[in-house]
Amino acid sequence: MNLKKSYKLSIIGLNRFYLVGICLLFISPIACVGKHTKESKVVDIAKQPNILFILTDDHASKAISAYGGGLNETPNIDRLANEGIRFDRCFVNNSICGPSRAAILTGKFSHINGLTDNGIKFDNTQVTFPKLLQQAGYSTAVVGKWHLGSQPSGFDYWNVLPGQGDYYNPEFIEMGDTTVVKGYVTDVITDISLKWLKKRDANKPFCLLYHHKAPHRNWMPAPRHLNLYDSINFPVPESLFDDYKNRGTAARTQEMEIDRHMYPIWDFKLATLAEMDAYIASNRYKNKNDNGLDSKSKNMLEANDKSADLAKFLRVYEKMTVEQRKAWHKAYDPKTKAYREANLNEKERLEWKYQRYVKDYLRSVAAVDENIGKMIKHLEETGELDNTIIVYTSDQGFYLGEHGWFDKRFMYEQSYGTPLIIRYPKKIKKETVSKALAMNIDLSPTLLDLAGIEIPEDIQGASLTPILENNGTVNSNWRKATYYHYYEYPSWHSVKRHYGIRTERYKLIHFYNDVDEWELYDLENDSQELDNIYHQPENKALIDALKDQLKELQIEYKDLDPTEQKIKFFQK
Ligand code: SGN
Ligand code: CA
Description:
Layout: H1 3-23, H2 29-32, E1 50-56, H3 75-82, E2 85-87, E3 90-91, H4 97-106, H5 110-113, H6 129-136, E4 139-145, E5 157-161, E6 171-174, E7 177-180, H7 185-199, E8 206-211, H8 249-253, H9 258-261, H10 273-282, H11 295-302, H12 306-317, H13 322-342, H14 346-381, E9 388-394, H15 413-416, E10 420-423, E11 432-434, E12 438-439, H16 443-450, H17 465-469, E13 481-486, E14 498-503, E15 506-511, E16 517-522, H18 540-556, H19 564-568
Parallel strand pairs: 1-8, 1-9, 2-11, 3-12, 4-5, 4-8
Antiparallel strand pairs: 2-10, 5-6, 6-7, 9-10, 13-14, 14-15, 15-16
Helix pairs in contact: 7-14, 11-12
Bound molecules: 2-deoxy-6-O-sulfo-2-(sulfoamino)-alpha-D-glucopyranose and calcium ion.
């Protein structure tokens, strides 16, 4: 392939696209989305609704009973869904923490807001929805997980976890000052939030970003939940034993398998009280503190090096009080002993690991749900509930054993999708369910819209308000497809860079960088995404059409990159 020639062709192709794009600006369905702004009007801010924005970390929709996952019960999150709207097809721009959070705040894709992977600091001088609300007269605050590298800006009050934060007795950075707060992180985040809500300036509407750490790895449950689900055996996902046949290199070379990539102590809590005491007494592991693993200790962990795994757990274990450790071991040690004595075969061992993982994950969710109940109760008691827009979402979905995985990153449904529930009875009817293709970049314009604040022209998401007001249905202008781009490679879990498009029925993904592989899934006939049909000759016309649609989205969202790799992807 003559690269120079193809580059020229691409440029000509692009110019043509831009011209066509400009001509079609007023009729193109894609162009219509994201340009919705309100005419300037004088708004009495004091009368505007409050906003409670609940963001969890890595919460799969399947672990919310309102989504019918069949695993756990989440009565308080369900209440929000039952009294509001549940979006069944909300997707993220880039399935990883910082990039999703930056997209939520700015309403823009990673290549525009600059935060393409977790290693980059958020440019906090950018326009964000909390900043615009603050400027318009809202009281604003963020409490809990932030994980954007730079200091929160646009908030009257902030009290956030450093980095990922810890489950037990976590440090918090309150307006620049770091303190350790005793307790369980999900409860503490709620206590701080309620304290702020009670003390804030009651003459102004509030916007509180209430951001949980849970249920992020390593899923340490609250003391009161350590035995929850002990007597239950959760259903095993069909694809737990996936062999990655009919998939590409990326699925085969990832490092996020429950069986091979979880750590015995950090993830499965396989260290008894006596063992922990002995480890601490031996003092051998003290210097292997790996909060933010360097590549050496990461390799050690990959090689299942026990000392690196232990060092990781010791860092959080040493922060626990004597009582907390006692409760911990009282719950885990008998189960650990039984596991060791059972002498399981390979298949049984994976099933055991799956149960241990999913139970801890769901136990962490249980505390989130209880605490959301406390927040709802507070709003009810103060008479503010119906004048508060409550949003429940996560920074992305998560694998609960599908494909044998944990973690996220891939554009496959479990991690590409994220829960989205909104309660606001003034605009949303009870028990509304929407199949609209929604995205995390839509949240910023939606909240601005509902607060009566003009949506900046350069926001790439679109306000969901018409869908909220229209029983969850979309009008003909709504987007027909969502766009995705993941960049964090090489890195944790080794998921290759990729971008793609998802329509109502199909998903086309291009893995690039050190591979050049396409995948196509028919979500109607293969909802589990187990069969890549890209190479079937009869799909040629479909693939051509999807590639055109993908190209249109890249132009619309300005995700153009003049590197050789990207030039390649403009060719069919
Ligand atoms: C940590 C986790 C990873 C996870 C990243 C990103 N490892 O590094 O499993 O993918 O965070 O998560 S851990 O052993 O330290 O828990 S994110 O939600 O912040 O993007
Ligand atoms: Ca996350």
